[in-house]
Amino acid sequence: MSNITPRPWLANAQMTRAVLESHKFVLQKKYGQNFLIEPRVLEDIVAAAGITEEDFVLEIGPGIGTMTQYLAANARQVTAVEIDRMLIPILEDTLQGYHNVEVIHQDILKVDIGRLAEEKNQGNPIKVVANLPYYITTPIIMNLLERHVPVESITVMVQKEVADRMQSGPGSKDYGALSLAVQYFARPQIAAIVPPGCFMPQPKVDSAVVHLTRHEKPAVSVKDEDLLFRLIRASFNQRRKTLANGLKNSAELTFSKEQIEAAITGLEKPLTVRGETLTLEEFAALADELSGIS
Predict the structure, then answer these.
(1) What is the pTM of this model?
(2) Which of 67, 90, 152, 263 is the 20 to 30 A CA-CA neighbour of 279?
(3) DSSP secondary structure code for residue 235 in this structure
(4) Are the CB atoms for 33 and 63 separated by under 8 Å?
């Protein structure tokens, strides 16, 4: 048996269609499946992720194995986690000969990534690559970041507007809870814009490849991280309201009107200030102002 890794061959419409038809695979709307068919984009993802022959890579949502082939050709080892059991036989077919790939049929939210890093990468932080259905992208990214699992970077295909939100700053229309949460844990960078024609079937919107480099420690210091994120969510749940009203109306918070107003005043902000104008540092300071209040 040869240990030479085959060259990727799946990244075009003809081969993708042939594989799907040979397995009588029917696209499932609930999984939002769109398969990449453009080699240049796949090469861009590998480059953005900085994959080398020394790396162990966790791939989330391998689909029919198109990206997996590129990862396997560049990495030391790849573990691909796929939730759709109907894709498992296809992956067994398309990844024949790729001896450095393991496919796990599982929900990524239930995978013990710490144990995976221990077993496959001597406990060192791992690189994550994903081409996910848009509806589940944000929950999965935030789950990876918030669980403090050993992840060095996440390179992910997302809807372009989501990518814009990840790297937006205060005052922008795209700035929101996702911007702050991502930037608290990581440095986001858009590596490529991907038009609909690079997928089969074609989505209705442009996509983007985003590379998230995990901070060694969070971007700001805060006494109560959970409170910080509750404040951020509350301030953006009703964007048109002032920060004070947003916090007072939140079911996640129990502070009185007086306590909230005193905390905002403590930041030397007017009571008319809106949450969308606050920086991450200012949200952390607000959380610290309120953290000692029961």
Answers:
(1) 0.92
(2) 152
(3) H
(4) yes
